[in-house]
Amino acid sequence: MKNVEVYVKELGLDYIDLVLMHFPATFPFMTSLCNKDAMQCRRETLKALSELRASGLIRNAGVSNFAMKHLKDLEGIGAPIANNQIQFTPFELEHVMETVAYCAEHNITMTAYSPLGGIMDQDKAMADEVLNQIAAKYDKRVSHIMLRWATQRCFAVIPGTGNLDHMRENLSIFGFELSDDDMQTINELKYRAKGFVHTDVCKSE
Length: 205
Ligand SMILES: NC(=O)c1ccc[n+]([C@@H]2O[C@H](COP(=O)([O-])OP(=O)(O)OC[C@H]3O[C@@H](n4cnc5c(N)ncnc54)[C@H](OP(=O)(O)O)[C@@H]3O)[C@@H](O)[C@H]2O)c1
Description:
This protein has 205 residues and is of the alpha/beta class. Helix content is 48%, strand content 13%.
């Protein structure tokens, strides 16, 4: 709670729109220090963020890297979760789709981080044959197709770049639309997760 007060002050703002709990797991030394397990820490952190929301210091509380099981742990504490920021590309593990469905069902908006594959997988994603075929069909680049696909799956996307041309390109994805058939083709790429690097958040207790 105190940290958020510092962030607001340092940013020179009156409030922050959205604050996320970064990861469902805690460091083992922290859980032993406070004698609480990771689930208790998650629930207490969300409650604290919810109090900040009630106080007006933040407008929304959210989470990041939460799998469905972590979200379920937060049910019943009366603290709304505005957003779940997760790694999301067409190459995710199957359980990610369960999390996506859970979020949609519970009105939790979703943000895709590393939507171009991030540092580990970008080259592999850009080389994918099917994505390249679809990009050629729309006269676009694979990066456009990946970002457009995620937005049509109702995700906000946050591609990382310090390159102005890439920023412009990434903003241009709102000028075209992928057909239902092409969306479906890309949805099925998830079965090709093999070879990609995943933060398997399900392993976090
Ligand atoms: N919540 C979390 O746990 C978490 C974890 C990881 C990342 N994130 C966040 O996610 C955001 C982005 O993730 P990320 O940077 O890991 O992965 P990313 O957006 O998938 O990939 C970034 C890479 O894509 C390149 N790129 C961007 N636009 C491009 C374009 N139009 N054409 C070709 N290359 C392009 C960038 O290079 P150039 O710089 O050369 O454009 C950079 O190398 C960041 O804000 C990061 O903080 C959150």
